[in-house]
Design a protein that fits this description.
8-stranded antiparallel β-sheet, 3-stranded mixed β-sheet, Beta-lactamase, 17 strands, Methane Monooxygenase Hydroxylase, Chain G, domain 1, 12 helices, about 15% strand, about 30% helix
């Protein structure tokens, strides 16, 4: 099903229809992706909302009520939550992390010349600040990167398991016993930093992260289909999630009817734990696009959003120059990083159409969004397939959406 755009919104309807035809031919008919949902909005109005493919294997198609695991699209929400506390004067962007999470006091950098000691360390050149958590310059990592002794330690300690033995406090304690990969501010590495930021939100606010999200963000914005645990009366709307097996075949990763997301997680992941719908995330994007307000409710201030969507990488660098990560949810060239979002700095270097100041992110199950404040448009794309880096669909969607603008 597709709802096409009125001409007044500045799109060519036939070109938007071509996006859906492309996705169907390239990804759905070939079996590369299980389903696809595309929402495009301009000036706050939905101008295109299409649904293709079965929500569950052999079942009914995805529709506007379908629920998706949004993974790292949780990160901007956690970052907004933190900035709400900054606005309340309870913490600052440059606050050292150990001032709130005392477990991180004295954490050092891994020293490879440790004489056989696994985790010999040296002091950091600067303290880890909240800024470093927001922009992924903290020196933390992800275990699944499989690139260093530190991420191997993450895997050995199983500290990233949402249904494991650790709650958020236990996660912080375990993480703080491990060294950093580099001194905070001296590199960019995609990491568990936003999960740590979720712990900061809990400690500063005095609320559990799920309660803060529900009462301070989701309820005010009317995001009634966004949560860490899918309620029993909504589990029938959760789509199947797929992955690639060792033989290169698409297989079920998490079945909607018996999903891990139907159970309460022990570890509330501010970095990747949420389930949401395209319509709910559209409301979050509208709030950001409107400078922090939606339908008369203000979540954060306009100038706060402006601060969040500036490039905060040291020296104005882009990710191509600063990244030490093997994995990201964005192209690196011409892309900076703000306080919870990647930010387009140089459109030419990205080699894709777009606007300077556009901000965006994606998730490990191939979901994605972008917000373009210049063209006053945003996109939410939903599917459920990992790894997200396997296909260039985000680039293709973005290119075709901009090509549809008159």
């Amino acid at each position: 099903m597709t709802d096409t755009v009125p001409p007044s919104h500045g799109f060519a309807p036939e070109r938007l229809a071509a996006v859906d035809a492309f996705v169907k031919a390239r990804y759905l008919d070939t079996g590369l992706l299980p389903h696809a949902q595309l929402l495009i909005a301009r000036d706050g109005e939905i101008v295109h909302f299409s649904h293709q493919g079965p929500a569950r294997d052999g079942g009914a198609p995805v529709d506007e009520g379908s629920l998706f695991r949004i993974a790292s699209m949780t990160k901007p929400i956690t970052s907004i939550a933190f900035m709400m506390l900054v606005e309340a004067g309870l913490v600052a962007v440059d606050t050292p992390v150990h001032h709130v999470l005392s477990e991180f006091e004295g954490v050092g950098i891994y020293h490879s010349g440790g004489g056989g000691v696994p985790f010999a360390t040296r002091p950091t050149n600067a303290p880890m600040r909240m800024l470093d958590l927001l922009r992924h310059t903290a020196g933390l990592t992800y275990g699944f990167q499989n690139r260093s002794n530190i991420d191997a330690a993450y895997r050995a300690l199983k500290i990233e398991r949402w249904h494991g033995d650790l709650d958020l406090d236990g996660f912080v304690a375990a993480l703080a016993r491990l060294p950093l990969e580099f001194s905070p501010g001296e590199g960019w590495n995609y990491s568990v930093a936003t999960d740590v930021l979720g712990a900061v939100v809990e400690r500063v606010s005095g609320q559990r992260l799920d309660e803060f999200f529900a009462t301070r963000i989701f309820a005010p914005l009317g995001m009634h289909d966004t949560f860490f645990q899918v309620p029993a009366d909504k589990i029938d709307r959760l789509t199947d999630c797929h992955a690639l097996d060792a033989d290169g075949q698409r297989v079920i990763y998490d079945r909607g009817a018996a999903s891990a997301w139907s159970r309460p997680p022990r570890l509330l992941s501010g970095g990747g734990g949420l389930v949401s719908s395209a319509l709910d995330y559209h409301r979050f994007c509208r709030m950001c696009e409107n400078g922090g307000t939606l339908d008369g409710v203000r979540i954060v201030g306009r100038k706060t959003l402006e601060l969040m969507t500036m490039n905060h990488l040291p020296g104005g660098q882009d990710l191509a120059g600063l990244s030490r990560s093997l994995f990201s949810e964005t192209q690196n060239a011409g892309t900076g990083f703000g306080l919870g979002f990647s930010v387009t700095q140089d459109v030419a270097k990205t080699m894709m159409p777009g606007s300077r100041g556009e901000y965006y992110w994606g998730g490990m199950f191939s979901t994605a969004f972008f917000i373009d404040p210049v063209e006053r448009l945003h996109m939410v794309f939903m599917t459920q397939f990992t790894p997200s880096s396997l296909y260039p669909i985000r680039r293709e969607l973005k290119t075709m959406i901009y090509a549809a603008l008159n």
